[in-house]
Amino acid sequence: MTRPVLNEVLETPYTDEFDVVVAGGGASGLMAAVSASRMGARTLLIEHANCLGGTGTYGMVAQWIGFYNRATRVVGGMAGELADRVVALNGSEGFRQYLMAEASEQPIPIVHFAFNPEIVKIAADALAASAGLAVRFHTRVVAPVVGGQRVTGVVVEDIAGRSAIRARVVVDATGDAAVAWGAGAAMAPSELTTAAHVQPCTLMFRLSNVDVARFRAIPRETKRALALQGIREGRIFWESLSFCSTPGNTDAICLMSRVSGVDATHAADLSRAEVEGRQQIASILAFLQEAVPGFEKATLAAIAGHIGVRETRRIAGRYTLTEEDILSFKRFPDSIALGAGPMDIHETGGTGISLHVPAQPFEIPMRCLQPASVAGLVVTGRAISATRHANGGARHMATAMALGEAAGVMAALEAASGQSPGADAVRGALRARGGLVSTDDATETFASH
């Protein structure tokens, strides 16, 4: 079917110029922008929402995982600085042991950092301000500016209209590789056949008036039986009664919905997912109130501003990280970040989850952040070059923050020299800040509280 075409002639004014422009202010984009600015690059961070932090704030996934592989610390640097800021603002009780997916068939113990998303918004603003970078909210990157296979800026739209911004280097932290896609960068070959096989989405929600201690005291076997009961009755949607609480332990920020068959690169699918997610939340809340101890008086306090998306586009980079690389603990001379896992794949169209924590940290090479076919662009976050299963282990927010800090260093060095930086320079800059870039750096162990 041939669709009609609207031919437009646009004259878009250039309104500014920066050394580095970062598209997307989530966990990875925030770190990329602060990192580049601290390297001396004039930096702009562009975010379509009203806050920084992405999935952890307006997405309301109120825990960072990936700081630790089992008991070994694998992420430091600016991510650790942000965590410290959140604790100082009484937004978290710090790192704690946590049983992930407790009601699933095979839960796993991890170390996580639970937090109040509203406090993280404040801490993220302060971190950005400390670096002196420019931040623009309510602004969407709609296209890259490309010349001769090089990205030279971005086109944005905001309440004032459409404009263009020049950049020596652009960092794509959109999560969906939106800038790379628009620039014609090669994408990773699809390992899936249809949207029905993409990992499901989750819409987070927050409950008040929860007796958290009473729920935590329930034996795990009973929690699993309750989850399976809810699934049989069609009232909950996967094997999860998982939630985090903010300091004070009177609320529950719940990871319990599951919306399958969503291609999150299409607005119609995303729109359907948001509506279905809210309908699921109503059902889940009623089940919790009626059947689960500790939730009898729970009330719905908030629903996340954006459904959580696990899987869309990934670039084809100069190197593609694989599951075999992770499980064999392959070493890379250009490693710039460490991953912790778990290898986290949510069952498509079903109610289960596959979880596996690698026995050791794994290295992520710089080449995974570099598109194979487009210059002037660094990609960070869950859109790096990785296979589906490797991405399941590398997309956690602490890992994304480490990748973002590396991306910022890479972008700043390239903006200053006009050439793609060497790995030694990037690794040296990261280590000077306390970054952990290879398994040789991962020596700190978790001390239980």
Task: Produce the secondary structure layout.
Elements (H helix, E strand, L loop, with lengths): L13 E10 L3 H12 L4 E4 L16 E2 L3 E2 L2 E2 L3 H12 L6 E6 L7 E7 L2 H15 L2 E3 L3 E8 L2 E9 L2 E12 L5 H5 L22 E4 L3 H5 L3 H13 L9 E3 L6 E5 L11 H25 L7 E5 L19 H5 L7 E5 L3 E4 L6 E4 L5 E4 L11 E3 L8 H7 L2 H21 L5 H10 L17
Parallel strand pairs: 1-2, 1-11, 2-8, 11-20
Antiparallel strand pairs: 3-7, 4-5, 6-7, 9-10, 10-11, 12-14, 12-15, 13-14, 16-19, 17-18
Could you walk me through the main structural features you see in this protein, from its secondary elements to its overall organization?
The chain has helices at residues 27-38, 77-88, 117-131, 178-182, 212-216, 220-232, 267-291, 323-327, 388-394, 397-417, 423-432, and strands at 14-23, 43-46, 63-64, 68-69, 72-73, 95-100, 108-114, 134-136, 140-147, 150-158, 161-172, 205-208, 242-244, 251-255, 299-303, 335-339, 343-346, 353-356, 362-365, 377-379. Helix content is 29%, strand content 23%. 53% of the residues are buried. The termini are far apart. β9 and β10 (150-158) form a beta hairpin. Strands 1, 2, 8, 9, 10, 11 and 20 form a 7-stranded mixed beta sheet that branches. A 4-stranded antiparallel beta sheet has the order 13-14-12-15, with helices on one face. The protein folds into 2 domains: 14-95 and 113-192 and 313-339 and 353-441, FAD/NAD(P)-binding domain (3-Layer(bba) Sandwich); 200-303, 2-Layer Sandwich (Alpha-Beta Plaits), CATH 3.30.70. The chain has 449 residues and is an alpha+beta fold.
